[in-house]
Each structure stands twice: as structure tokens, then as C-alpha cells.
Write a structure and sequence with these properties.
334 residues; mainly alpha; PX Domain; 2 domains; 3 strands; 63% helix; PX domain-containing protein; phosphatidylinositol binding; PX_dom_sf
């Protein structure tokens, strides 16, 4: 429980990935899905405990939806897609690695105070029908402030630094491999796209405002003398008595679009620094957990080896030396 009496982020939504099952025999059509067991204290869910089965492409759907719905958040990465040339995606080792990666992904999403509120996450965890069915129903860069430029530099260099560290520290390679991908670059790209959209909306509003001004000036100056002949006929065809109201509608639409674009850009900009802090805390926790698991595995291995040596020593101590054996190996005197 938190200080205000509310469930902690981890206790509020616990998701476990287990029981992988292979379906089909065809090389191209066969797939593996996993059991997702959910225990939650969040009232919006229909039950406190339930489960569904999901395959990898369902996780891809969820992550894409989260990236679209939360452009200012660092959405955790999924385990890498298998390579037909390097991976046997139905081997026990590959399935185990993928299951661990999917578990880490969901733990991070459930621990994020904004992402776990997603209606798409609820659909992913609750919907009994396939997500494919659910889914069917459903630039100019300006200089950034110094803090954002530092974030850009960090995002550009992070994967390289982590990979280099992993190659030097073989014992911690697995733990480093889990945290080397940084998807903050996606948030920065979303911010740039939002800024570009804001600039386009501002230009559209400016154009609509100028059009309204020209129309108002023409109205105040009075109608020009009607022209005769073909030009007069053309003027009649071009005349639109509703032009004034249409211009006003375009101005209002452009203004609303500008406000929405401005709000989106400001929301992403505000959340970036929070997401960077979150990333550092999460990475430290994941790295610490990975090192701890590695140390425990090494201790267990060493303890097993020690037990084997102790058993061997006990056997050796029971062996009796055959009398005269040692003498038979003594060199003869000449």
C-alpha cells in the first residue's frame, strides 16, 4: 500500500506469463502462445483474477497502441523478433528467452502509472476473442532547449555504450542485454512530429484568417459593377452567398486544430524529463535484478560442484592402499 492508502503500482496489477504452447505443424503457420494470468485490485476490470492466451503478434499490437496513445511516454521494448536464419523459434531455449522478455515488458507496463491506465492494455488482458478481431473493430526542426539536446545525445549514444559494456563484462552480458535498448528516441521523434504539426496548424490558421480578412474588406468596399457577357456569367457562377459563413467555419476549425496541436506538443515536452528519470530508475532496478540472478546462479553452480568434490573425496578416503604396491614402483639398485 502507498502512503495515501492506495495499492502500490506493482500490487495493483500483477501479470504473469507462463505455459507456452505450440499450435500447428506448418513451418509458416505454426505459432506459440502464452498464458497471461492477471491479479488486480483495479476496479475497472471485470474480475480480480483471470487469464487469457496471447501470441507474440498480440504483444506487438499492444505496444503499437501504447506508442500511439502515449507519445510522451517511453513504452518498454519487446524481445527482438526471431531470425529464421539464426533462431529456431520453437526450441525450448528460444521460447524461454521470449517468455522472459514478454514478462519483463508487461511488468514495466504495469508499473508505469500512465501506461497501466490504458484501455488497450485492459482489452489485451481481458478480451477472450482474438486481438485481430478486436483490432478490426476498433521536417522542420527548430533548436531545442539545452536540456532536450542533452536527452537527444544520451538517446543516440546509449545503445552503443551499453553494447560495449556488455562485450567487456561477459558475466553481466545477459543483464546488460536486457537494458541496452532505449526507446526514448521514439518519444523525441513524437515530439518533433508534434511540433511540425503545430507549425502546420499555425500556418493554416494564418491562411484562413487572411482569407476572412480579404472577404470582409471586399464586403465593406461594396459590390463591384456587374460585368457583361461571358465574364458576367462567370461571376454569377463563382458567386457564393454562403462564403462568409464557410470562411468563419474554416477559421474556427483551424484554430481548434492549432490548440490541439499545441496541447499535444506541450504534453510531450513536459513528460520527457519525467520519462528520462523513470528510465534511469527502471534500468538500475532491471540491471540490479539481472546481476543478482546471475550471482545466485553462480553460487548454486559452485555449491553443486563442491558437493560433487566432497562425495569424490569421501570415496577416495575409503580406498585402501594395497600392501607392497608402493615398493614395486621403487627404482632397483644396481
Amino acid at each position: 500500500m502507498s502512503a495515501d492508502g492506495q495499492p502500490s503500482s506493482e500490487a495493483a496489477l500483477l501479470i504473469t506469463v507462463s505455459d507456452p504452447e505450440k499450435h500447428g505443424t506448418s513451418i509458416t503457420a505454426a505459432f506459440v502462445d502464452y498464458k497471461l494470468s492477471t491479479v488486480t485490485q483495479l476496479s475497472r476490470y471485470a474480475a480480480k483474477e483471470f487469464f487469457v492466451r496471447r501470441r507474440y503478434r498480440d504483444f506487438v499490437w499492444l505496444r503499437d497502441r501504447l506508442c500511439h496513445a502515449f507519445p510522451g511516454c517511453v513504452v518498454p521494448p519487446l524481445p527482438t523478433v526471431d531470425s529464421p536464419l539464426k533462431d529456431d523459434r520453437f526450441s525450448p531455449n528460444f521460447i524461454e528467452r521470449r517468455q522472459a522478455g514478454l514478462q519483463l515488458f508487461l511488468r514495466r507496463v504495469a508499473g508505469h502509472e500512465r501506461l497501466r491506465e490504458s484501455s488497450d492494455l485492459q482489452t489485451f488482458l481481458e478480451a477472450k476473442e482474438s486481438l485481430k478481431s478486436v483490432q478490426s473493430l476498433m521536417a522542420h526542426k527548430v533548436p531545442d532547449e539545452e536540456a532536450i539536446e542533452r536527452v537527444r545525445a544520451f538517446a543516440a549514444n546509449y545503445a552503443t555504450i551499453a553494447s560495449a559494456s556488455a562485450s567487456k563484462q561477459h558475466a553481466a552480458a545477459a543483464a546488460l542485454d536486457r537494458v541496452k535498448e532505449l526507446h526514448l528516441a521514439r518519444v523525441l521523434a513524437n515530439r518533433d512530429a508534434a511540433l511540425l504539426q503545430y507549425q502546420k496548424a499555425a500556418a493554416a490558421l494564418d491562411a484562413s484568417t487572411k482569407e476572412r480578412q480579404r472577404w470582409q474588406e471586399a464586403e465593406h468596399s461594396g459590390a463591384p459593377s456587374p460585368r457583361s457577357g461571358v465574364l458576367g456569367k462567370l461571376d454569377e457562377l463563382m458567386y457564393d452567398p454562403q462564403k462568409g459563413s464557410k470562411v468563419e467555419v474554416r477559421v474556427k476549425e483551424a484554430d481548434a486544430e492549432l490548440s490541439a496541436a499545441k496541447e499535444r506538443w506541450e504534453a510531450i515536452s513536459t513528460s520527457i524529463h519525467t520519462e528520462v528519470d523513470r528510465f534511469h530508475r527502471q534500468t538500475n532496478a532491471d540491471f540490479s535484478r539481472g546481476l543478482r540472478e546471475h550471482v545466485l546462479e553462480q553460487l548454486e553452480f559452485e555449491q553443486a560442484q563442491q558437493r560433487e568434490w566432497e562425495q569424490l573425496l569421501d570415496i577416495v578416503e575409503r580406498v585402501e592402499t594395497v600392501p607392497g604396491t608402493a615398493a614395486s614402483f621403487r627404482p632397483s639398485s644396481s
